[in-house]
Amino acid sequence: xxxxxxxxxxxxxxxxxxxxxxxxxxxxxxxxxxxxxxxxxxxxxxxxxxxxxxxxxxxxxxxxxxxxxxxxxxxxxxxxxxxxxxxxxxxxxxxxxxxxxxxxxxxxxxxxxxxxxxxxxxxxxxxxxxxxxxxxxxxxxxxxxxxxxxxxxxxxxxxxxxxxxxxxxxxxxxxxxxxxxxxxxxxxxxxxxxxxxxxxxxxxxxxxxxxxxxxxxxxxxxxxxxxxxxxxxxxxxxxxxxxxxxxxxxxxxxxxxxxxxxxxxxxxxxxxxxxxxxxxxxxxxxxxxxxxxxxxxxxxxxxxxxxxxxxxxxxxxxxxxxxxxxxxxxxxxxxxxxxxxxxxxxxxxxxxxxxxxxxxxxxxxxxxxxxxxxxxxxxxxxxxxxxxxxxxx
Length: 393
Ligand code: GDD
Ligand code: MN
What we know:
With about 400 residues, this protein is of the alpha/beta class. About 55% of the residues lie in helices and about 10% in strands. A 7-stranded mixed beta sheet has the order 3-2-1-4-6-5-7, with helices on both faces.
């Protein structure tokens, strides 16, 4: 059915083996060659152990007519989803596990899963059975016709539905969809969808431009593509989750804002730097509040108040950056403490640079406000650049 490409790939593989095994007739050796899949199904997982086997079983039935593989991309789930996937993979070599450590993120997991595949067609589907896997053959046939780059499962297209979502989540989803209009080059009915299938070429064309931030991989793909993607939407009903729980929390809103910002201004300034600077301005507020409380209200000495305020502001900056700016490589436990120490050290040097540069400029007749701003800018860039390497390596 979709075999022509794979045939070419097999003969290339055979030629390579021939040259490697010089002098040994190919027919005598059991090369055990099996053709690669025509479809890779990528499933991002975090704590989905109870759903794995059911999903594999459903795909075995749904995709029986095709050569497919299933790549789970797990972010070191505490419930040992990865180990469970590896067990299932021992009984079915179409199942694979990409186990990421010290990382988090649905979008980046999908991207890495797609990059770990060689198939001409790539699908992304949630691991919690909320997406309708029975749509996959239809998606594949649609792509194989050659007129479409990507087929999107849509809850808002005619015939689709949202399942048991409460009103507030529906409203948020609709609002987020509307916002995506700023960066999308297509009128999608459900840009927030996490269920779709695309041709490998469409992914490869934009893979270097993908942001890989947060949950919204489909928005990322459409916004990063150098040319408008030819899409088709298929309606489906979003199912109710049976096992496990949703990971979509309030911080996902922040991630989404960062994704949109990255698409809008990322070519000018790294969006992490914007986030880092925003956190820095919150730090200034924290500092001033602490200083006022200790110095004006509690009557401590200025030096002590200033020192404590600096310390508290650095700590709150570290904690905020850890959950927002570096959410995808968030530090926990001992690594949190070590990160905090290195951050404090980095920022102390940054503060010295800040004061040094500002004082120097001021002594050279620069206006005081300008001198201060130059100092702050240099300090912030230093803090950002060095903490990026040493604190959140
Ligand atoms: N690897 C990895 N890393 N996987 C993750 C992470 C992560 O940090 N966070 C979530 N996942 C996996 C979950 O295990 C699940 O398989 C899938 O991504 C979706 O996560 P849910 O937590 O179930 O999200 P949801 O049901 O609230 O929302 C989903 O469906 C919506 C409708 O299509 C997401 O796909 C949304 O992006 C989508 O809008
Ligand atoms: Mn879900």
